[in-house]
Amino acid sequence: MTTSTGAPTTVGAVDSEEPLSPGYDTATRDDAEFNEDFRHGFTTVDDVQMHYVVGGDGPQVMVLLHGWPHSWYVYRDVMASLLPGRTVIAIDLPGMGDSTGNPPSMARTVLATYVHRLLDRLGHRENVQVVAHDFGVGVAYALAAQYREQAAGLFLMDYGLPGKNLKFATLEPLSWHFTFNKQYPLAEELVTDRVETFLTRFLQSMKSGEAEPVSDNELAEYVRVFSRPQVLHAGFELYRVWPQDEADNTALQETPLTIPVRLLTQAGLAQFTLPSIQDAAPDATADDVPGAGHFLVHEAPDRVLAEINAFYPTS
Q1: At what angle do helices 242-252 and 135-146 cross, to 10 degrees?
Q2: Cβ-based burial of 123 (10 A; exposed 0-12, middle 13-18, buried ≥19)
Q3: Whole-prediction pTM value?
Q4: How many CA atoms are closer than 13 Å to the CA of 218, on its beta-carbon side?
Q5: pLDDT tens across 76-88, in order?
Q6: Separation CA 232–CA 247 (nearest Å)
Q7: What is the rounded distance in angstroms from the CA atom of residue 141 to the CA atom of residue 134?
Q8: Core-most of 5, 57, 107, 275, by most CB within 10 Å?
Q9: What angle do CA 117, 154, 281 make, to 5 degrees?
């Protein structure tokens, strides 16, 4: 971790490094509640300096994985409520947020290996409670499928898992951004220097009912991190490697997960999405959140917290 002065301290089993992303604490340096409970940490795994936020010292370790167009900050408003009895670690996926460096691929199996090695470095090699949203779900599944002792369970939010039965070709027509984000280098060329406009329009297009998809603070933080060229590119690459995820997941699904798996979705999508999760974990269960859209942590935080605590009860 780093202190408010930037001096490195110790997180878990390793000394945190000097951050390569100088603006990493823009959203938190004046947040007294955050700084009382949580610290930033930086650890290099292979060629990527991984950024994560950690708080608590409870015996149950929980890791939070974000999707697109987010960072660890998507969990900011619920993290303190998760602390009793737990050590909570929110990770910026490789290439994204305030992690620095380019992984060889944004395929979820590759990203999961970085998360696995980071958790190993921090001393958390088994029985980790995994929570994930959006593309983080793909990383969470690949983590549990490849490193089976590390995950105690998977609590997943609003994501269909391409693989044996759910195909990328079925998903792509569902939203304009699935096709746009694939366009290389056009997407980067059009969005560079227009990140705020792009994210604002995208998030509004995902709006459900009267609820805003993000707060002003969240939007400002996502604009900051996606204004980093490596992050903008890495985020678009998540969509370009989706066919690889489909192939990887199809192979991984040959050995079903036996850990508990729970899926929470936006209104009306649970029954559409659950079969793809059951291809990976046959006993998985699902429910949706009436009135909520895709951004569940922001739109329905109380329901998300209740579901997480019911799925992962603290001892």
Answers
A1: 30
A2: exposed
A3: 0.95
A4: 21
A5: 999 999 999 999 9
A6: 25
A7: 12
A8: 107
A9: 110
Q: How far apart are CA 104 and CA 269, in angstroms?
A: 33
* Strand residues in 46-113 grouped as ranges (E): 48-55, 60-65, 86-91
Dig out the tokens for 58 from the structure. 């409870």
Q: Please check whether residue 34 is in contact with residue 28, taking contact to mean a CB–CB distance below 8 angstroms.
A: yes
**Given the DSSP bridges, would you call strands 14-15 and 38-45 parallel, antiparallel or unpaired?**
unpaired
CA distance 86 to 57: 6
Q: Compute the Cα dihedral for 28, 82, 58, 286 and give only its sign.
A: negative
Q: Are strands 86-91 and 60-65 parallel, antiparallel or unpaired?
A: parallel
Question: Token match 């909570």: residue?
Answer: 88
Q: Each residue of 119-128: pLDDT tens digit?
A: 999 999 999 9
Using CA atoms, how far apart are residues 48 and 109, in angstroms rounded to an integer? 16
Looking at residue 230, its amino acid is Q
Contact in structure between 77 and 34 (CB atoms under 8 Å): no
